[in-house]
Amino acid sequence: MLEQRIEEVNKANHVFYAAFGNLDIGEMDKVWAHQEYVTCIHPGWTLRSDWPAVRDSWVLIFNNTFSMTFELTDVIVQVAGDMAWVVCVENITTHQSDEPQQAKVLATNLFERIGDEWLLIHHHGSAVMG
């Protein structure tokens, strides 16, 4: 049972990063719980809370990015009942101009099992220096 839930959360996390990498707000809408208690902290940003504010942050990112690719490393998935979290390093390549930009972000993604789905309720990314 625990191994199955870990695999479900791992899949939900991959769906999140597919939506992120594809800059697809429709897909991003599907991976988040549309609740007032959802929160998001992008590197260098202030806290966004409540679904409309969280969603607006993704729209802003997607509208200002030409392309983005992710390679996840150091992935840790934990499940406790109907809550789960993923900690990972996002190795990101972005194309906002002619030159690709590389970045590493340490991320925590918190999921809640709502019905039969694992939905994102919190994303926190912190830039890794050096």
Low-confidence stretches: none
Helix content: 25-40%
- Oligomeric state: single chain
Question: Major sheet, described briefly?
Answer: 6 strands, mixed
CATH classification class: Alpha Beta
SSE-based structural type? alpha+beta
Mean pLDDT level: 95
* Annotation field: number of helices: 3
Beta-strand content bin: 35-45%
Measured distance between first and last alpha carbons: 39 Å
Q: Tell me the strand order in the biggest sheet.
A: 2-1-6-5-4-3
SSE string, helices as H and strands as E: HHEEHEEEE
Number of domains: 1
Write the CATH architecture name: Roll
Task: Briefly note the CATH topology name.
Answer: Nuclear Transport Factor 2, Chain: A
Taking all Cα atoms into account, the compactness measure Rg is 14 Å
Molecular structure report:
This protein has a single domain (2-127), classed as Nuclear Transport Factor 2, Chain: A (Roll), CATH 3.10.450.50. It is an alpha+beta fold. It contains three helices and six strands, in the order H-H-E-E-H-E-E-E-E. The chain is globular and about 45 Å long. The protein has helices at 2-21, 25-31, 51-63, and strands at residues 39-41, 48-49, 67-80, 83-95, 101-114, 117-127. Strand 3 and strand 4 form a beta hairpin. The longest helix is centred in the N-terminal third of the chain and has 20 residues, at 2-21. Helix 1 (2-21) packs antiparallel against helix 2. A six-stranded mixed β-sheet has the order 2-1-6-5-4-3. The model has no long low-confidence stretch (mean pLDDT 95).
